[in-house]
Write a structure and sequence with these properties.
Order of helices and strands: EEEEHHEEEEHEEEHHH
Structural class: alpha/beta
Strand content: 15-25%
Distance between the termini: 29 Å
Shape: flat
Radius of gyration: 20 Å
Helix content: 25-40%
Strand order of the largest sheet: 1-2-4-3
């Protein structure tokens, strides 16, 4: 990890990843983080920051807005693929979870501060267990709908727990999707699915791969890629 200070954005953290094929910009609590391919010169990263300042200003601004809107309270309804998460007043001193139809109801202890760090972790773990089970039902179904429409054979679909890697495809045609996709808008879920389906033919990120992925996405691959990554988990408890 290399850190340098930018006059506008403050400390910028640069990390290399052998799996990265391009620069990835994220806004973390401690500042702007850039992931780059291995061997990528620091000066090239700095030049990319200069070339993309306007876009990065928007990214940072949206991240600040998201953090301000993360305050949770009883009565909130959090969007989730396949059914919202509803925070309801409870009577027990523990969180209680149950599905009512497609809605995950979370009964919260009376008077609890849902924004206290340890409480937030407990809530997130509990919600995660139920959303993971739900993901095993709805994500494979959505993938099968898209693959059937495109006429693509898929050997198997499994659900993982990875935060950084939302999808993976093997040469044998096995696809794994992260349950964290459940916290994304449906359009982005479909993009990740189309991305992995394109890997059934091309296991790289060549122009041919992106052309195929773009066709699977109905010509909207580039627009979906530009959605800020800070928005991905803005609704997750």
């Amino acid at each position: 990890m290399f850190v340098y200070r930018d006059e506008e954005f403050g400390e910028i953290y640069i990390r290399s990843d052998s799996r990265a094929c391009r620069l990835i910009f994220r806004v973390k609590d401690n500042g702007l983080q850039i992931t780059c391919p291995e061997g990528y010169a620091v000066n090239r990263v700095k030049s990319a920051v200069d070339d993309n300042r306007e876009k990065l200003r928007v990214l940072v601004s949206r991240s600040v807005t998201i953090r301000k809107n993360r305050v949770l309270s009883t009565g909130d309804s959090i969007p989730c693929y396949g059914g919202d998460i509803c925070l309801l007043p409870g009577v027990s001193n523990k969180f209680l979870f149950r599905y009512e139809g497609d809605c995950l109801q979370v009964f919260c202890p009376p008077g609890i501060d849902l924004n206290e760090t340890n409480v937030r972790k407990t809530l997130s773990r509990g919600v995660g267990r139920f959303v993971y089970r739900r993901a095993q039902e709805v994500l494979p179904r959505r993938l099968n709908q898209i693959s059937s429409r495109l006429g693509l054979p898929v050997v198997s679909v499994t659900i993982g727990r990875g935060r950084r890697k939302l999808g993976h495809c093997t040469r044998r045609g096995e696809i794994q999707l992260s349950f964290y996709l459940m916290y994304l808008p449906e359009e982005l879920i479909d993009y990740v699915i189309c991305h992995e389906l394109a890997h059934l033919k091309y296991m790289d990120h060549s122009p041919l791969f992106h052309a195929l992925c773009n066709r699977y996405c109905g010509g909207r691959e580039r627009r979906r890629q530009l959605v800020p990554r800070t928005a991905c988990h803005q609704h997750r408890p």
